[in-house]
Known about the structure:
CATH architecture of the largest domain: 3-Layer(aba) Sandwich
GO molecular function, one term: monoatomic cation transmembrane transporter activity
Helix content: 25-40%
InterPro entries: NAD(P)-bd_dom_sf, RCK_C, RCK_C_sf, RCK_N, Trk_Ktr_HKT_K-transport
Organism: Streptomyces alkaliterrae
Protein name: TrkA family potassium uptake protein
CATH topology of the largest domain: Rossmann fold
Oligomer: single chain
Number of domains: 2
Largest sheet: 6 strands, parallel
Strand order of the largest sheet: 3-2-1-4-5-6
Shape: elongated
Number of helices: 9
Order of helices and strands: EHEHEHEHEHEHEEHHEEEH
CATH class of the largest domain: Alpha Beta
Distance between the termini: 42 Å
Bound molecules: adenosine-5'-triphosphate, calcium ion
Amino acid sequence: RPAHGEQRIAVIGLGRFGSSLAAELMARKWDVVGLDENERRVQRHRDLLTHTAVADATDDEVLRQLGVHDFSSAVVAIGSDVEASILVTSNLLEAGVPNVWAKAISRQHGMILERLGAHHVVLPEHEMGERVAHLVTGRMLDFIEFDDDYALVKTIAPRVATGVPLGETGVRATYGVTVVGIKRSGQDFTYATAETVVQPGDVIIVTGRTQAVESFAELE
Ligand code: ATP
Ligand code: ATP
Ligand code: CA
């Protein structure tokens, strides 16, 4: 990761998604250049971001003048105007920005962005919907799924994982999951080892194949 000062990112489109993203990046000490064709939106971000500009990002010249080719990353946070999203993404890739992130509003839109060569495509509504489904149906408190069918889950410890040292519970062999962390009420998180004894009510962090982790988190 580049040193502070080189963490310069362009956020194109300051709607709800772009705005929240830009604010979080500022909180993480990145230099954020926000661009939107809507003057009022830009006005609202003027004092919050490193730099802002009112401009149509589909215009090649606009991106060039902003110096995006020197940025380490850019995020295309335009959603509903799919044509603009595709054009801007293509221009950023053409300019050689090494990390181009693009938001898609549909799977088809996402597929086009991927074929264009966008380095990261996010589908906020779809991804959040899937995540919430996991949280709604199970006892999970939090859920992260990685690309390769691998998940990390925060859940209340099922009875099978409690009472005896983890190494003796057989949860890895039986359920295919590994307990990596444990949080007892009023205490900090600690790493789990084979000797750790989880108690009923403890919150645990579990990893493994998505299906295995889901089944394990369903247990009483
Ligand atoms: P969100 O859900 O994040 O609010 P959205 O999916 O509704 O956004 P849009 O409203 O299409 O997405 O776009 C978000 C922002 O991008 C808007 O503020 C819009 O003005 C801006 N935008 C759209 N097209 C361009 C463009 N060509 N150049 C610069 N900004 C643009
Ligand atoms: P491994 O080769 O799996 O690391 P090990 O030789 O380190 O096992 P122990 O650490 O004593 O052996 O663990 C005994 C059994 O308990 C093993 O089947 C191991 O996979 C399992 N186990 C150890 N730690 C955990 C854990 N945190 N969560 C679930 N199962 C565990
Ligand atoms: Ca929207």
